[in-house]
Automatic annotation (TrEMBL):
<dbReference type="GO" id="GO:0000166">
    <property type="term" value="F:nucleotide binding"/>
</dbReference>
<feature type="domain" description="Gfo/Idh/MocA-like oxidoreductase N-terminal">
    <location>
        <begin position="3"/>
        <end position="118"/>
    </location>
</feature>
<dbReference type="InterPro" id="IPR055170">
    <property type="entry name" value="GFO_IDH_MocA-like_dom"/>
</dbReference>
<dbReference type="Pfam" id="PF22725">
    <property type="entry name" value="GFO_IDH_MocA_C3"/>
</dbReference>
<dbReference type="InterPro" id="IPR000683">
    <property type="entry name" value="Gfo/Idh/MocA-like_OxRdtase_N"/>
</dbReference>
<keyword id="KW-0560">Oxidoreductase</keyword>
<feature type="domain" description="GFO/IDH/MocA-like oxidoreductase">
    <location>
        <begin position="138"/>
        <end position="246"/>
    </location>
</feature>
<dbReference type="InterPro" id="IPR036291">
    <property type="entry name" value="NAD(P)-bd_dom_sf"/>
</dbReference>
<dbReference type="GO" id="GO:0047061">
    <property type="term" value="F:glucose-fructose oxidoreductase activity"/>
</dbReference>
<dbReference type="Pfam" id="PF01408">
    <property type="entry name" value="GFO_IDH_MocA"/>
</dbReference>
<protein>
    <submittedName>
        <fullName>Glucose--fructose oxidoreductase</fullName>
        <ecNumber>1.1.99.28</ecNumber>
    </submittedName>
</protein>
Length: 325
């Protein structure tokens, strides 16, 4: 049994616990929040035995094996490194760090302390993504990739009223690229690696946060388009175009439908059976790695490429975070 603590008590943590409870070797042991009262309140909802309002105490606890971190992006590096130095495995919510330099420090701390650091990029652990990977060969030579994820944020209504919540506050290393665009970038690098060149542009809102953006990448023999937004919705699917056919992907962040349309007009529908809450698969993988005493090198390599693209995209867009200084 792997004893988990959670840092963060928002809806995403609810979703994590809901999924993690389906894993037979998961046990929720502790909750951290900024106040003991909130930690106790949240912990009682899930019958967690321990509550913390001190990160050092949590890091030193012998009752906790692993920590799920779902705080704002700007806190990820500091909190992760503290837990890793306390010999805790860490599953850190996307985007795993504010920039590539932070992630490099996090990976170094994990290696020095013999524990696992894993980005909670739920979409690439689940059967939907494996269906994409396993069927790519049917498309022949890949020439164009278009991944898009545009989801109107419920917090944008408050933003328009002058109420700036964390999701629209660049102080917390947030914005459309970090919260939504990452769902397009990570699958791209996991499938195709690091591009040769990057172009990027964005819609900047009045407080300097990005509300939507487009990233173009070039691999020499293949082009990629990444479209994302927190201020509009899109009904169009993602797609991968090859010389033999086109793969249509419904919802790149939670793929449940994949269709290949070949050049001769024939259609192939690929069935995907998976959990309703696809956070389950990232928890299962972390637990598996812990139990076999493995490492997350292959996953961290993708996270490093992801942040390399995001750093360059932000440079071209003129988006800077306090964490960059």
């Amino acid at each position: 049994m792997v004893k988990f603590a959670v840092i963060g008590t928002s809806k995403i943590t609810d979703r994590f616990i809901e999924a993690a409870k389906l894993c037979k070797n998961f046990e929720l042991t502790a909750v951290y929040s900024r106040t003991k009262e909130r930690a106790l309140e949240y912990g009682s909802k899930y019958e967690a035995a321990l509550a913390y309002d001190d990160l050092d105490e949590l890091a030193e606890s012998r009752e906790v094996d692993a920590v799920y971190i779902a705080s704002p992006n700007s806190f990820h590096a500091f909190q992760s490194i503290k837990m890793l130095r306390g010999k805790k495995h860490v599953l850190c919510e996307k985007t795993i760090a504010s920039n590539k330099k932070e992630l490099e420090h996090m990976i170094k701390a994990a290696k020095e302390n013999g524990v696992i650091l894993l980005e909670a990029m739920r979409s690439v652990f689940d059967p939907g993504f494996k269906a994409i990977e396993n069927n790519l060969i049917k498309l022949g030579t890949i020439r164009r990739v278009t991944f898009q994820y545009c989801q109107y944020s419920s917090r944008y209504d408050n933003f328009k009223k002058g109420i700036v919540e964390n999701a629209f506050n660049p102080v917390f290393s947030n914005g459309a690229l970090m919260d939504i665009g990452v769902y397009c970038i990570h699958p791209l690098v996991k499938l195709f690696g690091m591009p040769k060149s990057i172009w990027a542009n964005s819609v900047i809102l009045e407080n300097g946060v990005d509300g939507a953006g487009t990233i173009m990448v070039n691999y020499g023999n293949m082009q990629g388009e990444l479209l994302y937004s927190k201020i509009t919705n899109s009904k169009l699917p993602s797609q991968i175009q090859g010389e033999k056919g086109c793969m249509i992907i419904k919802e790149i962040a939670d793929t449940r439908e994949v269709t290949i349309i070949y050049n001769n007009g024939k259609e192939e529908h690929i069935s995907i059976n998976k959990c309703d809450n696809n956070m389950y698969y990232e928890v299962e993988e972390l637990i598996r790695l812990i139990q076999i005493k493995g490492n997350a090198d292959v996953y961290n390599k993708c996270s490093l490429m992801e942040l390399s693209i995001m750093d360059e995209a932000r440079r071209k867009m003129g988006i800077k975070f306090p964490a960059d200084v």
